[in-house]
Amino acid sequence: MEDISRGVRSFAIGTAFSRVLGLVRETVIAGLFGAGFAVDAYNVAFRIPNLLRDLFAETALSAAFVPVLTAEKAKSREAQNRLASNVFNVLFVVAGGVSLAGLLLAPVLAKVIAFGFHKVPGKIDLTTQLTAILFPFLLFISLAAWAMSYLNTEKSFFVPSLAPAVFNLFSILFPLLTYGWYTARGKNPIFGLTVGVLVGGLMQFLVQAPSLWRRGFRWSPVLSFRDPEFRKVMALFIPVAIGLAGTRINVLVNTILVTPLAQGSVSWLNYAFRIMHLPLGLFGIAVGTVALPSLSRLVLEDNVAAVKSTLTDSLKMVLFLTVPTSALICGLAVPLTRAIYERGRFSAADTLATAAALVLYAVGIPFASALRNVAAVFYAYKDARTPMYASFASIGLNLVLNISLMWVIGYLAFPLSTTLAAALNVGLLYALLPRKIGGLESRPLAAYAAKLALASAAGGGAAWIVNGLVVGRLGVSFPASVASVAAGGALGLAVFFGVSRLLGVAETRDFLRRFLRK
């Protein structure tokens, strides 16, 4: 078994800073713009390039690029850099072309995706303008994801995980500094946020450039679609992209479905998702990102036993990190949302609506996190088709649930279906793993997960009780909400570790020791 805890720790530290700044960004947005006209338009406009980002960057790119680049690295630095340069150049041309096309087609795209906004005068027009400004973000963030993949292959995780913090920093500063300027000129200040997002995407790539040079990358002007190694990347990339395309189309359809619902629905879901994404990015994505290069190397060495043990360890690790976190978020959803967002134009009603969505999203964090790790095994074996098919099944469930439930429980249908679809996706992939690596000892893992869930439920329940006591004594002010989250979180964790020990979950102490070890 390869111990990935040190890499996870480095990635998590950098990601923690980035995610905290991300929440600060959302707090600024909530305070300046609330949940309604401008923020709904911004979220829908950003959804299009953001969805395409997942196709050209991040999951798809790393899943296809890292395994092949790992093999090239084993040959020579020259071979590694030739492939990396070719992928960079192709990505620049293709993502740049799509960005230009999106900018020109913004009026058509906005009218289709935001069709439900036609009831509110000027809302589709604002969405169109924001879409045109935001589309070049796709190019910048794709290059940032390329840099992250290269550095991860070099087992450099801290700088790539910290790079999004630069994006968040610009997304915070621009709306704060330009709000008065736009308002004084009779323009919607949401444009300041949009420009900040665009500049932040560029800086997220540029901040990684020094590390690329130090790690030995040297760019060359190679641009070949026929290169054998590039074709290997594409052989992996296309199935991953198709699977993600289905998922992203599903998200796009969901966005279209939400727009006719009550004004603010898009914003409530987005604010809830941002809180949920903190532990998902901090723990789930961290473990999956660090595990992929290690699994790719073990597969290259044909060490199946180590692949199995590393996968089991990574799954236990990700469950240890996400299950108790999810329970605490559920127990403290209202004070957490209130402390982060409720100020300025973000009302108490917005807090309750966002917190309800947050609970349903939070339940799915362990499933979404485990999915990254299980899928990494298939990608390491250069099998992108199986995750694609499992993704299609989850997409089908997601759409059916949304269409069936949206007129019954409104916007809450969307986080509920997201959680259930993630559970189906990871379940299917785990069931298909024996075809790839042989039989797995599932009973010990299931017993571990059950005990962990029980201990986490106890911790989440304790946190919920503490919140009730704090509200009864101190009310719902910002200091009271912070006190509730701090006291509830501390007691909840203490209860979790206590119950874990009573249930004999030895891994909790082991993982703590490994993460704290120098």
Annotate the secondary structure layout.
Layout: H1 5-33, H2 37-56, H3 59-75, H4 77-104, H5 106-113, H6 123-134, H7 137-153, H8 158-184, H9 190-206, H10 209-214, H11 228-258, H12 265-300, H13 304-331, H14 333-341, H15 348-363, H16 365-380, H17 385-409, H18 413-432, H19 434-437, H20 442-474, H21 478-502, H22 507-516
Notes on the protein architecture:
The chain has helices at 5-33, 37-56, 59-75, 77-104, 106-113, 123-134, 137-153, 158-184, 190-206, 209-214, 228-258, 265-300, 304-331, 333-341, 348-363, 365-380, 385-409, 413-432, 434-437, 442-474, 478-502, 507-516. It is an all-alpha fold and 518 residues long. It folds into 2 domains: 1-19 and 264-518, no CATH class; 37-245, no CATH class. Helix 2 runs antiparallel to helix 11 (228-258) and helix 13 packs antiparallel against helix 16 (365-380). The longest helix is centred in the middle third of the chain and has 36 residues, at 265-300. It starts with a helix and ends with a helix.
**Which shape, going by the Cα principal axes?**
globular
- Low-confidence region ranges: none
Distance between the termini: 19 Å
Number of helices: 22
Give the integer mean of the pLDDT values.
81
Order of helices and strands: HHHHHHHHHHHHHHHHHHHHHH
- Strand residue percentage: under 5%
Rg calc: 22 Å
Helix content estimate = over 70%
